[in-house]
Amino acid sequence: MEDTLGGAESSGKEWEIVKELVFQWETDQPADLDAWLGEHCPTASVRCEVERLARAAATSGEFMRGGAAQEHLGIATPHPSHIGRYSVIEELGAGGTGVVYGAYDQALERKVAIKVLSDGAAAGAQDRKRLRWDAKAASATIHPNIVTIYDIGTDAGFDYIVMECVEGRPLGKLIAPGGLPVQTALGYAIQIACALDAAHRGGIVHRDLKPNNIMIANGGVVKILDFGLAKLDNPSAGYTSLPATIEGHFAGTVAYVSPEQAEGKPVDNRGDIFSFGCILYEMLTGSQAFQGDNPFSVIGRILHQSAPRLRLLAPQLDERLETIVQRCLRKEPGERFAGMDEVTARLEELVETGTPQSRFSYRTRKRFMGWGIAAAAAALLTAGAMRMASRQALPKETRYEQIRITNDAGLTSFPAISADGQLIAYASDRASVGNLDLWVQHWNLSDAKRIAFNAADEYSPAFNPSGSELVYRSDQDGGGLYEISALGGESVLVAPGGRDGHFSPDGEWLAYWKGEVGNALFRGSARTFVTPAYGFQALGKTQEFPPGFDVAAYPIWSPAGNSILFLGRKTGEKKGDWWIAKLADKSVHRTGILDKLLLLGVNAYRTYYPVPGVWLKDNTVLFTATALDATNIWSVRIDPKGNVLDEPRHWTSGTEVEQNPDAAITSKGSLHTVYSALTIANSIWRIPLTPAGKMGSDPELLNAMFHAGFPSLSLDGRVMAFSARRQLGDSIQLAKLDRAPVLPSTLRQAFNIRPVLSGDGSTVAWYAASNGYIMAVKGDAPEVICRGCGPPTHVNFDGTKVIFEAGGSSKVEELQVAGRGQPPRSLFHIQDRRQWMQASGRFSPDERWVAFTGWHEAENKRQILVVPITPDGTVAPDQVVEITTDDFSNREPVWSPDGRRIYFLSNHDGPDCVWAVNVDPVSKRPVGEEFAVAHFHNAGRLIRGPTPYYGSIGLSAARNFLVLTLTDTKGNIWSRGTLR
């Protein structure tokens, strides 16, 4: 006999011996396992299997579970800095045979997960085979609900596989004690069933299906993991080298294995159907279908007993659900469903015919009638209704498929579709060295033609109603809206500074906006305009619309063309919302949509604002929104008066960042949609500087600074605070940059905006929920020093003073200063008839001056200004030093440590780049011309932070380097097609 359990005849008897010995081992718990095995095991094969199961049970850990030190003490275990070409960022979890790391693929510039065999496991040939089989089995089937395998290899003794990094949680962690809401469970179950059906059709049986091998990505997308126990069901498929420990005997997790698998018999796709039934049972009830005090009592129930009736635990469930689960859990494989496609069809019937939890079975209805007490029945029904109402009802979703329109390796985004659904326009860097050009192609064809190309980026196209012309944004010469034929040719500037132009349905008018929108919606930061679409310059009819708003941006037309929907903050209002403004009487109506989205977990103040994308003929508005860490296309129905007709819901639910929706309902009633699906990564980079203040060499990615932003340096450049995204929320991190490698430590776990470090590195300030906080780095309690203010922008050297921006609803946007025991007050007030808006203030190193971004409400430009610190805070107009005087947007000034230079961000030559001006050490007036420090003209890598607030870029200066946040973006155009 070989050293593993043999064929069908011998395996049954030996398996009974293995079961008894493992049960005895659990009772004895011997200190010396080897000696115990030698004394009790009659054959080498039995010993091998008992030892495998015993060691697995002793070291068992779920696929994504962290180690004890990390889980209970908050101590991160050491990990390699690199595995192959992958830079290791963090440990995501550890189990009995390996560790999973989050890493960064340097070649393809993306976040990945790497599963690595642990040192002990790596020595075993069987574990190597299992790891490679996991990769082969998972990659054998390409399906959106099966984790994608990217690579497999060995490096420095590490055997590893590289897979997509799924941001989310295991299904087992999401199942509440009473189960999931029925519609949620159905949504997950259908995705699991579809994935298994695809795997089975490819000849792969999973054999270890369980809740903790199923990840629920942000947005509700299912990803099946860990094919390490998968079995080849169709030998003709050509896969070989199955791990020896997998074939011919028990494998899997006991609570979810099929009876034939528990007995060591051959297992086909019907074994996965049994496991699926166990998972569906648990999702609906919160309880495992088969329970026991130990693994072998569980196996006994699987072999000889039926699971408790589903509706004994959840009587409100549709009887059809119970029928599906019961058939999945039949003991004999031949009595179960023949395939997962049949299971999928049955589940989809429940979704299509109504809400299952509202149906009571015939027996339940008869029981109500038999009671004969109407009051009791009414009370029960009321309680049931209240219980169901307490669960957040999920709207019925239409099943759809994702159709890929473009297939580019770089960045292709900003799609638009013509009104007849025949043409698609978009921006792409496919034919250039990094910048975006405008392309047009026919629907469902790949005949793309480049119609506009310039050294600057061109993006955000929109068709006129006939589809013959386009308006688009170009960043050339300071930026503006241009018009061009859909066939190409000469372009014409139609709105200097304009953004996001949209033609009215009759083609007579054009709506657009100017400015920039940040989290605070500062007064005067964005204005919306309506102008005649043709010949407007001669007519002079361009008008700001609507009046009475501090901020108005992202206008789109109503289907009738008599009003616009836009994001704005009305004068006197404290927060922004979507508004509808009628052109005829200029009346406005608040929709209240942002409050509705906040109730659904969409946090507009953490990421980019949800802004309207397109308003369709059926009153559906499509838009982009972020809930948790998932950014998808959402929909909501709004009538012409601005009344919200239903709850906002997901329109797409992919795992990438889905943005820029556009759609058209054709004359035949068909709906064509387009949107971009992007991979976006924010990272902190270091720019080496020459003594003259220019970039000395290529920017360097700071290790472990992935999905991060808001960097802030101490004056000597040795310590940096920043904000990093984690699964449990954002955190303030502290890193010492004079050490290699850079190993950040968590200073505070919370949702934080702009941590700012003092010059001596002793104190950090931050912003949360409209309050400003300060705390010593060494760990005293945080203190609120500013209420109702904006984010902090600078802390002086010893941490006694903090500059804050004004809150978004402030009547006067002036910088504030506060400290421990110092109530907030205006940092300075310029005695000028024109009120200067103030942002991003920074003390000079000697704390005698302040550099800041300033602008007047009526002007669409930002200047870098310097004013002296005066005893009473008043500054005369002639004391204001204009560092920049051009018409470009210049912002986020940063002093060099010697106070002789000011770095800042400017769109002087298109996208934001780093510029600088040398200043006189005494008067702080410019010495010479401003000059470029570092250019970032590649659309796939731009200066951009994780939020629309410019402070999240975190430009900071040390003597010989700068740090800032860069965003890498790749993606393509997709369409949503309905499944029939």
Strand portion:
35-45%
Major β-sheet profile: 7 strands, antiparallel
CATH homology-level superfamily of the largest domain: TolB, C-terminal domain
What structural category do the secondary elements indicate? alpha+beta
Q: Unreliable runs, pLDDT <50, ≥5 residues?
A: 1-11, 59-77, 228-252, 353-397
Care to count the β-strands? 60
Query: What CATH architecture of the largest domain do you see?
Result: 6 Propeller
Q: What is the class of the largest domain in the CATH system?
A: Mainly Beta
Mean pLDDT: 80
Distance between the termini: 54 Å
Structure commentary:
By secondary structure, this protein is α+β, with helices and mostly antiparallel strands. The protein folds into 3 domains: about 170-400, Transferase(Phosphotransferase) domain 1 (Transferase(Phosphotransferase), domain 1, Orthogonal Bundle); about 400-680, TolB, C-terminal domain (Neuraminidase, 6 Propeller); about 680-970, Neuraminidase. Helix content is about 20%, strand content about 35%. It has 18 helices and 60 strands. Strands 12, 33, 34, 35, 58, 59 and 60 form a 7-stranded antiparallel β-sheet that branches. Strands 1-2-3-4-6-5 form a 6-stranded antiparallel β-sheet. Strand 3 (about 100-105) and strand 4 (about 110-115) form a beta hairpin. The chain is globular, with a radius of gyration of 31 Å. Mean pLDDT is about 80; it is low at about 1-10, about 60-75, about 230-250 and about 355-395.
